[in-house]
Amino acid sequence: MKWRDIGSDFVGEFIGTFLLVFFGCGSVTVSVLDSAFSGLFEVAAIWGIGVTLAIYATRHISCAHLNPAVSIAMVLAKRMQISKLAAYLAGQFLGAFVASRAVFVIFIKHIQFRGKSVHSPRCTGIYQNSNVVWGVLSQPRQRTVNSGIDGSSGYCRMSGNIPTGILDLLTH
C-alpha cells in the first residue's frame, strides 16, 4: 500500500461525499427554509444529481463509495483491502462535515430567526442561539421550531409518543 494511494482514496471520498451532502442537504434546506420547491420530487431530483456528480467526479480517484456502510460492506465482502478502510471512512466523515458546515454558513441568515417561529410541513432543525443541530422530520403535519433568545434551547415539537426533540434525547 502506497501513501499516494491512501491519499487519493481520502481525497476522492472527501470530494464525493462533500458533493453528495452539499447538494442533498442544500436542496432540503432550500426547500424547508425558503419553500422553494413544490414537493418532494424536486428535492429527490437534486439528491440524484448530487449523487451522479459525486460518482462521476470521483470514480477515477477512489471507488466512489460515498457511504461508510458501503465501504465496510466492501471490506467484509473482501472486495476492498482493510488497510484502505481508514482513508475511506476519514474522507467520507470529513467530507460530510465540511459540506454540512458549508450549507450552514450559506444559510446562516435564514437560520437565525431569533425569537420567531418557523412554520413548515417539515421541521428543519433545533435552534440554540446561532448553533444548529439538524434533524429533518418528514411528518406531513405542521410543526413549530422555537428559538430561545435568552439562550434556552428550542426544539421540534411533535405529537404522539415520539420524543419532542433531539436535545431531549441528548440530555436524558
What does this structure look like?
The protein has 172 residues and is mainly alpha-helical. It has 2 domains: 109 residues, Glycerol uptake facilitator protein (Up-down Bundle); 54 residues, no CATH class. The protein has a two-stranded antiparallel ribbon. The longest helix has 32 residues. The C terminus is likely disordered.
Labels describing this entry:
Glycerol uptake facilitator protein; two-stranded antiparallel sheet; mainly alpha; 4 strands; 53% helix; elongated; disordered C terminus; 2 domains; 172 residues
Sequence-ordered SSE layout with sheet pairings:
Layout: H1 3-34, H2 40-58, H3 68-76, H4 85-106, H5 108-111, E1 118-120, E2 125-128, E3 131-134, E4 143-145, H6 166-171
Antiparallel strand pairs: 1-4, 2-3
- Give the CATH class of the largest domain: Mainly Alpha
Give the averaged pLDDT, no decimals. 74
Order of neighbouring strands in the sheet with most strands: 1-4
Number of helices: 6
Q: Are there runs of 5+ residues with pLDDT below 50, and where?
A: 119-172
Alpha carbon gap, first and last residue: 45 Å
Number of DSSP-assigned strands: 4
What is the overall silhouette? elongated
Give the helix level as a range of percent.
40-55%
Order of helices and strands: HHHHHEEEEH
> How many domain units?
2
| Class computed from helices, strands and strand pairing | mainly alpha
Q: Could you give me the name of the CATH homologous superfamily of the largest domain?
A: Glycerol uptake facilitator protein
Please compute the radius of gyration using only Cα atoms. 18 Å
Predict the CATH topology of the largest domain: Glycerol uptake facilitator protein
Strand content: 5-15%
Q: Profile the largest sheet.
A: 2 strands, antiparallel
